[in-house]
Amino acid sequence: MVTKEQLEEMYVDKGLNIFTISRRTGINRSSLRELIAEYGLTRSGNPRKSRIIMNANGYMTINGKLHHRYIWEKENGPIPQGWIIHHLNGIKSDNRLENLLAISRDKHSTRYVADATRERISELEKENNNLKALISVYDDYICEMLT
Length: 147
Fold this sequence. Notes:
Blueprint: H1 4-13, H2 18-25, H3 29-39, E1 52-54, E2 60-62, E3 65-66, H4 67-76, E4 83-87, E5 100-104, H5 110-146
Antiparallel strand pairs: 1-2, 2-3, 4-5
C-alpha cells in the first residue's frame, strides 16, 4: 500500500502519470484513481504543467514556483520575509531537504555562504571516503571469492 505522502510526492510534486505510478507501486490504475480521490490530491491546472522543469538560471521550477522553496515550505512552513533558501552544495538543481538552508538575506554574504559550502564539502568528502573504503572491502572480498 502507498501512503498519502508517497502518492502526493509522485502524483502532485513530481507530476508522474497514473500509469507510471502504477508500474512503480504495483497498484492497479483504477485503485490509484480511487486513492487519489480519497486523499483529495489534485494538480493545479494542466497535469502536464505540474512537471518539474529547469529555468534559464538553472533552478528547478514546478508550476512556475521555485522548487527548492516549495520543498522547504512543504516541510517547514512559510519562508520568513527577507529570507532565502540556499543550496549548501551550490548545485541549484539539488533540492534535497538536507541540502537546503533558510537564511536571511543579510547573513547570505559571500563569507557565510563560503563557510557553509566548505563545511558541506567537508561532510561530503568524508562520506565519499567512507564509501570508497567500503567499496575497497567489497572488492577485496569479491577477489578472494573468485580465486
